[in-house]
Amino acid sequence: MATWNRAHLISETLESISSQTYLNWECLIIDDGSKDDTARVVKQFTSSDSRFTYLRRTEKYKKGLPGCRNQGLDLANGEFVIFFDDDDIIHPENLQTCLDLLKDGKFSFCRYDKKPFFDNSKKISFQAIHDPLSGLFKIDALDKMITGGIPFASCCVLWSKKCFELERFNEGLMYAEEWECYSRILSKDLTGVSIKEILYFNRKHPKSNTGEFQNNNSVRKKSKIKAAQLIIENLASKNLLTSRLKKFFIRLGFNLKSFEIIEKILQASSASKMERLKYKLGFIFYPFLRPIFVLKGKLKGA
What we know:
Layout: E1 2-3, H1 10-18, E2 27-31, H2 38-46, E3 52-56, H3 65-75, E4 80-82, E5 89-90, H4 94-102, E6 109-117, E7 134-137, H5 142-147, E8 157-160, H6 177-186, E9 192-203, H7 209-214, H8 218-237, H9 243-255, H10 259-268, H11 273-301
Parallel strand pairs: 1-2, 2-3, 6-9
Antiparallel strand pairs: 4-8, 5-9, 6-8, 7-9
């Protein structure tokens, strides 16, 4: 768990980890340089439960969420690893449910669903897990992961630590780092389990990384663009680009107002000069054409 200035929220998260029905775990809390009372709050847990360990991010790792997670990966002793954010709530049967599905060693990971909540929401009600409905996730579903058809949120996957033997989070990314990292791992043709159970509750607030991205924070937006370019490069190097992914990244380029993404996917897919010219002109005139497209969509749906 990476943390930074979350003294007002982290207790709830750590309490939900303490309440796990599976008991044999360690929780490494990597502080990215908090200036508030985070250390004092966390000490209440480390002093009473040896499974919690509080550490400061060292200079070996770059400041930011990816660096903290990489430090945690390098120190983790377990056979499996999972990343939790410092402002969310974890279902008490999270670990037990996932590990029951992975204990025979046939699968490399278990992904599950999440549900958002707000600070003013009523108390979270946990549903008991009896027989989780599951399906296999293989490389033929990689495009669904990348396009969001099968969500792979950073905190909604329990991984075999072997998946990270040669992989780490890109410390140059300040947003969408899990999207880029997880797509790299899954492009190695691993088989996992995907279950339709809500085992994680993510807090929605404007100061989260996602909240800042949705509010057009320039750092988060730039990172998303860079992550998209890195994913395209990896897919192209493994001949995993599909027409569906090509369309997805072109749309993403338009949505983020980034011709870099469009240019990258056109190059990677060996687009013709005519096609490149078409999208270049389309990108230039898109700000003027978009209102017309929106109006047509509304009239069509009326």
